[in-house]
Amino acid sequence: MRASVRDISRTLLLFTFVGLCQSNPANADEAKFVDCSLLVAPGYPSTWPQGFPRFRIIHDRVIGPRSAYNTDILYIDGNTATQMDVPPHSVVRPELKMPKSGKFGHHFTEAIEAWQFGGEACIVDCRDLLNKAPNGVSPLVKIDRLKAWEKKHRPFRFGDVVLVRSDYSDKFYRPLPEGRRFLASPLERKTPAWPDPNPEAMEFLAGVRKVMHVGTDSPTMGPIPDLGEPTHYAALKHGAIFTEAATNLGKLPTTGAFYCLMGPKHKGGPYGEARAFAIVGNVAKFLIDASRNKRAIDLSPTLDIDMPLTWPGKGVDNHRHRYTKADFLYAATLQLYHHTHIMDSHCGTHLVPPSYALPPGKLDVQSYAPEVRGWLEEYERKFGPRGSSTITTADVPLSQTCGWARVIDATSLVGTTNANAWPASPEISVDLIKADEAKNGPLKANQIVIFRTGHIDKHMKAFPEGVELMEDPLNGKSEGWPAVGAAAVTYLAKKGIRCVATDAPTLGGVDDRQALMTYWALGSRNIVGVEFLQNVGKIPDRAYFLFAPVKIQGCHGGPGRAIVLH
């Protein structure tokens, strides 16, 4: 059959595209992201249904006369949707000298090193086990299946993330009441439970093969009715961590993809809400090698009720909900409480989506406070229409918050404001960015631009000294942290930058007018922000930035974890 003109044209275009990919180093690093996380939302079976607090999101303030921003309060437990288990989920603190005491008994979420979050995904197909058990019983993934996988592919090894794929969450994680099939129905012994490894399989992976991260797309790593705890302990006693309730594992190759699970860094958390994802492509090899060889830097501070993690506002009664730990159930076997957290969605390291400062549609300017109306008129004269957005946390692609890091040093701005003008933040300008480009080369599209201010590294202290971080600068008692100006945001957008980060509490700074213009500029150009980093000065020249917020529906912030692999 003769080829048509259209077929010939398509073929020529394909060869041209392939040639570009081979000749352009940037394209060679392109990555395909696979989101392996379940949606966290009211009305879904997100939390453990036996006595654990249900997830809630409260839209505390909306854009209008009282607020120029959309803000949220989250009620979220570590056993929510896609989650991470760490050793103290089953391993008791060594000083207690109990039967399950062990050296990993203090490895709570804040103590897990960043290299352990990721590795090479090894997909063990167990779909044939789905629904192959009596009601209320889990089909078991046994050691012979793991050895058969090794015979077909290769031995498991340190640096792998072994992922048990049954497609359970893909099929059964649905809005309630249909979603009862995910957790409640098997626990009530009305339907078969999820497939999971038995203790012998876990001992083989973690004890023999030294695999330090094992995952499942079922709700928990625990087979029911009676092997849940033995299976957990078999791996956690070796220092392993778990991914529970992953999804989309069928979109990954059997080997070769980089897989990662990260979540907020709660002090004393024996488990935690998290975000799982995978990267397929050339960059995956770099990330796998970095994780396997422990070349990782943690960029997120620990969430602790004694630390200044939440926006305090100026003056009185302008604060957001402080980070709160709420104990609700005592585990006698571990001698610790299960706990949930209540917090502002911009607590600690967090995402700033466009909808944080932009209304969801056309907003009557009279809805703003009079002062803000004047700022909006000034902004639109200088930078164009403010625009609108419905993009919340769950809508932001992970490819936008992950990429090659480009650190720009802004520490030279510290101490450059006049005390008589406080509260004020030094402005990170276009000239500062251009000076960095002249020294270090031009910015490249899709790099993650991270501004180094040193503010959190210097001022992150427990209360009462913690007021130095945000409260004093906001109230004019000290200089504010260097902040990105709206003109700088506009310049970055023209350079193809889609994510901007800072090691300061916010990108906007302490001046209300300057800050709001910065967030309008970010949102209207569909640039997201990552705020509240630490250790930015430790990032080497060639490093890949990974940030993943918890996948919360309708959230205008999003707590998460940031690391770099190098």
Sum this structure up briefly.
With 566 residues, the chain is an alpha/beta fold.
Task: Please supply descriptive tags for the structure shown above.
about 575 residues; alpha/beta; Glucose Oxidase, domain 1; about 25% helix; about 20% strand; globular; disordered N terminus
Structure characterization notes:
The chain has 566 residues and is α/β, with parallel strands linked by helices. It is 23% helix and 22% strand. It has a nine-stranded mixed beta sheet. Strand 22 (499-502), helix 15 (512-524) and strand 23 (528-531) form a beta-alpha-beta unit. The longest helix has 19 residues, at 5-23. The protein starts with a helix and ends with a strand.
Write the layout of secondary structure elements.
Blueprint: H1 5-23, H2 25-28, E1 31-35, E2 56-61, E3 71-77, E4 83-85, E5 118-125, E6 140-141, H3 143-152, E7 160-165, H4 168-172, H5 184-187, E8 196-197, H6 199-208, E9 213-216, H7 228-236, E10 241-244, E11 258-262, E12 271-273, E13 275-281, H8 282-292, E14 296-298, E15 324-331, E16 336-344, E17 350-352, H9 370-383, H10 398-401, E18 402-409, E19 427-428, H11 430-440, E20 448-452, H12 455-459, H13 471-474, E21 483-484, H14 486-494, E22 499-502, H15 512-524, E23 528-531, E24 544-549, E25 560-565
Parallel strand pairs: 5-7, 6-8, 7-9, 9-10, 18-20, 19-21, 20-22, 22-23
Antiparallel strand pairs: 1-13, 2-3, 3-16, 4-10, 4-12, 5-11, 11-13, 14-25, 15-16, 17-23, 18-24, 24-25
Helix pairs in contact: 6-7, 9-15, 14-15
